[in-house]
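Many introductory courses stop at the sequence. We go one step further.
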Amino acid sequence: MSDLSSSYKQVQDKINATKSYNQLKSQYDKIKKTAGGSFDEAKSDVTQSLDKLKNLSKSYERELKNQFEQLLDINSILGGKGGNTTSHLKKIMIKTLRIIEPKISLILNEEILSALGCDQQQTFVAKSIYVKVKSVDLARLFTKDPNSKYGKAFYEKSPINIQSTPFSMNKELYQRIQSGNPYDTDNGQLYYGRSGQPLFNIQYVETNDLGETGPWFKVDLQNRANSVNNVFEFMTDYYKTIKVVDFNSIISWIIDAITGAVSINGNIGIAQLKDMNKFALILQRILGLCFDNRKEIDVSGNAKVGEYDDIDESFFEFTDIDLRNIDSRIENVKNGVVEFVTCDNVKLPVDSESIMDSLGDLLFVKDDDLDNAIDNLTKKISDNNNWKGLGLDVSIQAEIDLNFVKNFAKGLILSLVSPKVLLPIFVMLKAIGQEISDLVESLYDFMKRFKKFVKNIISRIGAIFVEVLFNIIKKEIRSLLQSTIMDLAKEKANKKIIMVLKLIQLLVTVSQFIQDWRKCKSVVDEILWLLKIATTGWGGELSLPLLMASKLLDGASTVRAFTATIEELQKIGVPTGDMPDGSPNLSVLSMFSQLKGSMGEMAENGKIQVAIPPLTITPAGLTIPASGFGKSF
């Protein structure tokens, strides 16, 4: 097991042990008050969540977990609000999505400049540029009418309204293909940027200026007002006219990742499905990259890739298992079915028409009601009438919600790989003399040709959601440790413990140590530190400076000893939760009694005797060796 995987496991073990302590301590207190009575009423509301985590049977499935999914496992153990963690997380992620567009636009602009290989002073020559339609339309959006169910899922929500902001550029590009006329012919003017300056004219043509078959978008670049055609200014001016983050597109990609409903309804071809699934798999690998400052960086907690700007070619290769999974996914889409782990991978028919109708309805939902609308959408998936009466004795709603949360970053990234976002990138590449864009004709091509750009965009967006989830986990840890720390305070009756409690509350509220949320070890180490600081003292090798500092130690603690005992019992598989009938686990509670008795005797009658060696004094010489006595507490 890698160091990173071991750290995630330590977090889970410590959280689980602390939860068990809280549960068992509560039962212990109740039993003390009602000794000899019935234990039936002592059942705790806290359960052993770790035992309920799904153990995936295939090792390669486990290895694909990225940092976000590891944190989801930790959050699952913590429990979350109302016991409905995934549903709660889903709403938080949706709210996050609605407020991070400025951050996404900033990331996009920064990485585009880097991909173009230029700085903010780079200029271009205003001329006609020919960009292949296939190069910008990697998901083949333009093969679908904006008014079709599939089109409504991915085109912009608003109709085309010339020079409105945000402008529905994907719809306009589709319209250019249908019309064949230049933009200014149909609309009476050139396309203007947010600054009010003309950016370009655009037309759909079958051949370029060299007579090469495309089809192409012919883009006639315009001179800037100050006669300095700055690449950065052009990109910024353009992107401010469109909505980079299309909410409906993101949700549609997420729903398609969960059910395949959008691909089913759109009758997507096998070649395109294979390309989309390859893209999704590489995307998952990139989300699994860690950017720790070490010689090697972890991938999905197990494999490792050298920490270089460019990912090597092996990163884009697929194993036989990968290809079988891709083929299985394609087969499910073509057959109109979906599989869920909680249903033992039984193939269930997908009601794609109903799902697409619900996606279309989102276009008319106000922003304040989107949370509930999406919640109803995911519930509609599990309420499929065709799934009833099939002998399924488990609910798949939780898995749907969990998959929804897991695919948030993927949905956002896929929505960004749209024609209106890619068009100015490829235009500027050609404007500064780079012809690489003509070689891009698929999502997979795009990832391989623009490795660094894709890696940075995906990892930085993934880090946004890691930070959101980490902050949720911090709050849950604070709540979880509250009881444990208060028990420590009561046990010691020491004001210093109360000060530690206050310190921990501040630490888990404001994180000061993580600067890059793509550094997996930084994230998991801080969680471990937050868990350890509340339940461990300070110690180390018995060097003189440390011995002198021993007065700072807290002393032995029944709370810490019992929590550590629970953790060790769980490691070897000893049940620490309630008995099958719901009564308290007296075997484990008896250990608590033993610890309290031992600690009580030590506190009351324990003593220590130490040998005191000769001590140097000045100027007389040495003291006489002696013995001394003290208390251990």
